Amino acid sequence: MAWEEPDGGSGRRGGEVVGDLLFVAIMVAFFALAAVFVVACERIVGADTSYETPTEEVAEPHEAAA
């Protein structure tokens, strides 16, 4: 005969569910704070525009020989 959980067979207790929800809340808060940190640093330092407008500098022949 198989052993069954007294709480309906889910295998989880109330404290474990609360712990899982707390973990998810902490993870969401962490990523929200990381996003705020990135925005704040971008305001302080400025946006990185080097990848937005690539500039291609062609060396002049006399500069390349020097």
Q: Characterize the main sheet.
A: none
Mean pLDDT over all positions: 78
Seen as an oligomer or otherwise, the chain set is: single chain
Unreliable residue stretches: none
Helicity, in percent? 55-70%
Secondary-structure blueprint:
Blueprint: H1 14-45, H2 61-65
Q: What does this entry look like structurally?
A:
The chain is an all-alpha fold and 66 residues long. It has a domain at 13-45. Helices cover 56% and strands 0% of the residues. The chain contains two helices and no strands. The protein has helices at 14-45, 61-65. The model has no long low-confidence stretch (mean pLDDT 78).
Task: Give a quick set of tags describing it.
66 residues; elongated
Task: State the gist of this model.
The chain has helices at residues 14-45, 61-65.
